[in-house]
Amino acid sequence: MRKVRALKMRRAALLSAQGATDAQALTLPSLYPEWAAGVAYGGEGEPCIVRQPGTSQLYRINERKAHTSQAGWEPASTPSLWTAIQGSETGTKDDPIPAVRGMEYEYGLYYKDPEDGKTYLCARTGEAEGGKVILQYLPHELIGQYFEEVPA
User: Fold this and answer.
1) What is the pLDDT of residues 76-90, one digit of tens each?
2) Could you list the residue range(s) of the whole structural domain that residue 34 is in?
3) Looking at the domain assignment, is residue 80 inside a domain?
4) Measured in whole angstroms, how far is the alpha carbon of residue 96 from the centre of its chain?
5) Per-residue burial over 33-71, b = 16 or more CB atoms within 10 Å of its CB, e = otherwise
6) Would 79 disulfide with which of 22, 56, 57, 134, CB 3.0-4.6 Å?
7) Which helix (H) or strand (E) holds 7?
8) What is the pTM of this model?
9) Tens digits of per-residue pLDDT, 15-39?
10) Which of 47, 62, 84 is the last residue of a domain?
11) Smallest Cα–Cα separation from 109: which of 127, 99, 100, 96?
């Protein structure tokens, strides 16, 4: 009986957590389910925030993108379906935002690449500061297109 009640309470907590703000979600990433193939996401009563498999990185389903996942559609590789939830870094040269695949980048902000540890400025000819773009690539993979390396 206690186990059944505990499972019901966990289910209620998970459903409640799905309505959390990004800042709230980042405080308890373990509360969110790990993404899996063959699961319905984004519909009524279905998860809209998940963890990237094997990590604590959270992703929120993009608006009006309800779907049933398939193998190879992990959040980090499908920016048309998912956007990475970011922390409170300011995006300045001294406080760059940690970059992850599938995140929303903002032109004019600085990002730290996890693979090479370098800092990059998100900039693109013809794009105004404050504009946004979702990319499934890391900054070092798009130098000269979306990013400029910042000298150390």
Assistant:
1) 888 889 988 888 788
2) 2-84
3) yes
4) 16
5) eebeeeeebbeeeebbbbbbeeeebbbbbbeeeeeebee
6) 134
7) helix 2-17
8) 0.65
9) 566 777 788 888 888 888 999 999 9
10) 84
11) 96
